[in-house]
Amino acid sequence: VSPTDQPVAAPIVSPTDQPVEGSEYWFIKKFNVVSKTLRNEKVKSFAKFKLKTTKNNLVENALIELSYESVNNQDQTSSQTSRSCTTNAKGKCFISIPAFHPDDVPFVTLNLEDIDAVDSEFPYDETLNKRNS
After folding, report:
1. Distance CA 98, CA 96 (A)
2. For tag attachment on the chain, is the N or C end more exposed, with fewer CB atoms within 10 Å?
3. Under 8 Å between Cβ of 60 and 93
4. What's the pLDDT at 12?
């Protein structure tokens, strides 16, 4: 049966599912992966987040959960690891990730597993998230 023989209407989207102009939404304002070399020559790496609303308010007590694949160098096995953080009064949180030196690792893949601001009265709009901030 050809898809054109029995066309299917586009799904109806409720107006509340789409951002409403003038309404307040929260989103990821900043996201960075940082790797620092400490004085003792150890490297510390982490993901940094900052959440805000469209009216420039900070989003406190939001839970952010990341996952990443980590490799055991001894036996070369890999495992999926999840970590989370809760945003502070400045809308920021940090998640430690396996240490890497930026000159040796061209990129890091992190998966955003969950993000929830249970205290926020405003909905999350992922289309507003800043890319490569």
Report:
1. 7
2. N
3. no
4. 41
